[in-house]
Amino acid sequence: EAQVTQNPRYLITVTGKKLTVTCSQNMNHEYMSWYRQDPGLGLRQIYYSMNVEVTDKGDVPEGYKVSRKEKRNFPLILESPSPNQTSLYFCASSGQESSYEQYFGPGTRLTVT
Amino acid sequence: GENVEQHPSTLSVQEGDSAVIKCTYSDSASNYFPWYKQELGKRPQLIIDIRSNVGEKKDQRIAVTLNKTAKHFSLHITETQPEDSAVYFCAASRWDSNYQLIWGAGTKLIIKP
Fold it and tell me: B108 and chain A: CB distance < 8 Å anywhere?
């Protein structure tokens, strides 16, 4: 089954404790992206990647890091989480095979206390 | 850069009536316009899309229209049903950035019984 997976789905952590949210897709998509969604603010892009070893900042990259060492994986790293990073995070992927439709993961709800 | 504005932010319609959500974009080079639906607690999913060489596209009760001259596109939902209640996002993408979507802020559609 074609899908985007994210782990964990829910995470409660404390300020300053490094964490990683994993994202994996099995559709051989070139493009992957991370969004955060906050009430009333829609989908805001954090980082995206057009292909392996190519990453670019989105609209709200501060406080986040990403890497794209393999085509299927695009982890989101919060080196020192802060309460303002409490949000719902979505990973998405897209490619020529999907005619550029973005497939979203199930979301990760992160709470930083 | 591209900017996508979406209106209204909230739309309440009686069940069975039609709903229209409008988006405007700024970059005349944009050529791909998808609409995503996000039900409560779920991930966004593509419901319909249109490319700039087409003026209108229909899929059962939903349709999208595009006016390239005015740089706006609209989502039309006819005979609305309770399951249409959701947040709808429009987006735009240009020909040389097929994977990168610029998102509207979203419209919360409420179907009143």
Answer: no
Whose tokens are 């085509």? That residue is A71
> How many CA atoms, within 13 angstroms, populate the side-chain half-sphere of residue A23?
31
Q: Which residues of B touch A42 (CB under 8 A)?
A: 89, 103-106
Q: In this predicted model, what pLDDT tens digit does every residue of B10-56 receive, in sequence order?
A: 999 999 999 999 999 999 999 999 999 999 999 999 999 999 888 99
Residue of B nearest to A95 (CA): B99
- Which residues 6+ apart lie within 8 Å of B68 measured at CB? B28, B52
Q: Helices then strands (H, E): number in chain B? A: 0, 11
Edge-to-edge strand order for the sheet containing B4-7? B4-7, B19-25, B72-77, B62-67, B56-59
